[in-house]
Specification:
The chain has 18 helices and 17 strands. It is of the alpha/beta class. Helix 2 packs antiparallel against helix 3. The protein starts with a helix and ends in a 6-residue tail after the last helix. Keywords: Cell membrane, Membrane, Repeat, Secreted, Transferase, Transmembrane, Transmembrane helix.
Length: 478
């Protein structure tokens, strides 16, 4: 190393300049070739090529660090087992209303899964309602318990779940737990350590404390799943933490919505967990303890939609686009974060311009101020085209729900942003049920506290508008 440095210092200044220029030329050409072959968005491609030629070394390093889609490249290596194999030819479901047959066919083509009838769905509000039902289900487990959570705190709520899982295992039930490697705490989460001490098999999804594996930070499991005996499932937006017990007045209360499902659709959820556990631990779960025969439990038709930066990439976003396109009278949605990509924005705008009532409810103030700033700079075209955007008063509501034409519902873990649509591993449930649709529409309507207008956006001081527009450029990473 010392010899190389001596030789470098011994060269003339002009020669050193020529060497640096040659390196810069090679880097710029390499970046340009990679961008031309890999980048589909013209604006992004022009930007990266321009930066690489204007600042060859610095621009190339930035592109190597932030511009290469490592998510897709790693996803090709990290293949997960398909959730379920069915006939590749989409078949219309007899349990779907005629007005939604086209949507049903499209979603079956997207997911590879059929809708299944004979399900029951129960909605819970906040951890105050969801946790007692979930803990009671675990207490009644006899054969298996599968739990996956993005956030699993080692607080009073988390410890209650840990003890319930331990007790289920001591009764002879097989127990498996997945915690996200970032959401539950970066350096070996406390709840994960507690579960391991209790002897409960628990895995960390995409966890690495090594700096050179930083691309894994974009691969998060945002799912919230609890499946008991392969027959009863819970999913939605509720994580495991004291903050979700709103009635107990925590320091930062988090309102949310969760759902209990029974019937044949539970197999879809179990298969999703089995695929994740195989990916995390390498163990393949099988047998009737996990996949028992399922009898009808109600009259609801449903289907699971998974999404992630692998073979499932953008499936939830694509289903949402299909649902918006098929809407005939109304689209109602609530989401804690609202930064959809241009395709979704344009679809909502087109729906509003053709006379569809489009209502979007977002928090007045979320738990991420940068998202709030970016949202204000992002919604201008929606307001101009007649989409009604409403804000909900505190405390912060983490619920995600969509209803189309008062019959089709879409609930689960996915937010309306690029991270959920493209980067996170997510799970939503598509439900055809008028009763649930009415309940969700009532819930969404009650959250419409104040309507945002174009005048509100225009009234922001110039420095604030400039700040919001600048933060919006981070949209792919928020």
């Amino acid at each position: 190393m010392e010899e190389l440095l001596t030789r470098w210092l011994g060269t003339t200044a002009s020669l050193r300049t020529e060497i640096v220029a040659a390196i810069g030329l090679v880097l710029s050409l390499g970046v340009s070739v990679h961008v031309l072959l890999r980048k589909r968005v013209v604006g992004a491609a022009i930007g990266w090529i321009g930066l690489a030629w204007l600042a060859p070394v610095f621009g190339s390093l930035l592109y190597i660090t932030f511009g290469i889609n490592r998510v897709e490249r790693r996803a090709r290596r990290l293949k997960r087992r398909p959730s379920q194999q069915i006939d590749d030819t989409p078949q219309p479901s007899a349990h779907v209303p005629d007005a939604f047959r086209a949507l049903d066919r499209a979603v079956q083509s997207i997911t590879g899964l059929p809708t299944v009838a004979g399900n029951a769905v129960t909605m819970y509000r906040n951890g105050d309602e969801a946790y007692p039902a979930m803990l009671a289900a675990i207490a009644g487990a006899r054969r298996s318990v599968a739990l996956s959570s993005y956030i699993f705190r080692d607080d009073a709520t988390g410890r209650a779940f840990c003890e319930a899982l331990r007790a289920a295992q001591e009764r002879g039930a097989e127990v498996r737990v997945i915690l996200d490697g970032i959401g539950s705490g970066y350096f070996f989460p406390a709840a994960w350590r507690r579960l391991r001490r209790l002897g409960v098999p628990a895995g960390l999804f995409m966890h690495s404390a090594l700096p050179w594996r930083m691309p894994f930070l974009n691969l998060r499991s945002h799912k919230k799943l609890l499946i008991v005996d392969g027959r009863t499932a819970f999913t939605g937006g509720v994580n495991i933490s004291d903050g979700n017990r709103v009635a107990e007045r925590p320091a930062f209360p988090i309102r949310d919505t969760h759902f209990r499902l029974e019937g044949p659709v539970v197999e879809h959820l179990t298969q999703a967990f089995i695929a994740d556990w195989l990916f995390v631990d390498g163990e393949e779960l099988d047998g009737e303890a996990w996949l028992p025969p399922l009898a009808p439990a109600g009259d609801v038709t449903a289907r699971v939609v998974t999404s992630g930066p692998d073979a499932d990439i953008e499936k939830i976003a694509t289903v949402i686009l299909q649902a918006i396109t098929c809407a005939r009278s109304s689209i109602r949605l609530a989401t804690p974060y609202f930064l959809p990509n241009d395709l979704v924005v344009n679809a909502l705008c087109l729906a509003a311009t053709r006379g569809i009532e489009v209502d979007v409810v977002i928090p007045c103030k979320s738990d991420h101020r940068f998202v709030d700033w970016a949202t204000r700079a992002h919604i201008d075209p929606l307001l101009r085209n007649g989409v009604r955007i409403w804000t909900d008063d505190p405390p912060f509501d983490h619920s995600k729900a969509m209803v189309v034409d008062g019959q089709w519902c879409f609930v689960g873990s996915a937010n309306w942003d690029s991270r959920s649509f493209r980067l996170n591993f997510e799970l939503n449930v598509e439900v055809y049920d008028i009763r649930l649709a009415r309940a969700l529409e009532t819930f969404i309507s009650a959250k419409r506290q104040r309507r945002l207008t174009q005048a509100d956006l225009d009234a922001r001081p110039f420095p604030m508008r400039l700040r919001d527009a600048a933060v919006r450029l981070l949209l792919p990473y928020l």
